[in-house]
Amino acid sequence: MMPDSSDLLLLRDKLRVFAGARDWDQFHSPKNLSMALMVEVAELMEHFQWLTETQSGNMAADKKAAVADELADVLLYLVRLSDKLGVDLLGAALHKLEKNAVKYPADQVRGSAKKYSEY
């Protein structure tokens, strides 16, 4: 089934309205949005800092809810940034997946965490 971009477009449009109602568009330059995105990614990482692999996959419900909020923040800034740059985010992601399939052929890299330049 081909992905439907309407959900991302709906989110993009809601973000436009949200920012517009608050007169925040003036602050939403690609530079500022990329920096805000990195801050949110760091906040997401904080939830996993010092956890073991097992702990990171078995979070309590309240911790998982906090992680979900951070994931949402990351998505919101990513969608807003792609909107400001005129990038079709879903299209770019699908294209990148195709490029990665060539870079990392399944029959050559299965079970390996090596970078493409290491095999």
Q: Could you characterize the architecture of this molecule?
A:
- This protein has helices at residues 6-21, 30-46, 53-57, 61-85, 89-103, 106-109.
- The chain has 6 helices and no strands.
- Helices cover 69% and strands 0% of the residues.
- It starts with 5 loop residues before the first helix and ends in a 10-residue tail after the last helix.
- It has a single domain, classed as MazG-like (Helix Hairpins, Orthogonal Bundle), CATH 1.10.287.
Terminal-residue CA separation: 32 Å
Poorly predicted segments: none
**CATH architecture tag:** Orthogonal Bundle
Proportion of strand residues: under 5%
Q: What is the number of domains?
A: 1
Number of strands: 0
CATH superfamily: MazG-like
Q: How many whole angstroms does the radius of gyration measure?
A: 18 Å
Class derived from helix and strand content: mainly alpha
Average pLDDT, all residues = 95
Number of helices: 6
What is the topological layout?
Layout: H1 6-21, H2 30-46, H3 53-57, H4 61-85, H5 89-103, H6 106-109
Helix pairs in contact: 1-4, 2-4
At a glance:
By secondary structure, the protein is an all-alpha fold. It has one domain: Helix Hairpins (Orthogonal Bundle). It has 6 helices and no strands.
Provide tags for this entry.
single chain, 119 residues, mainly alpha, globular
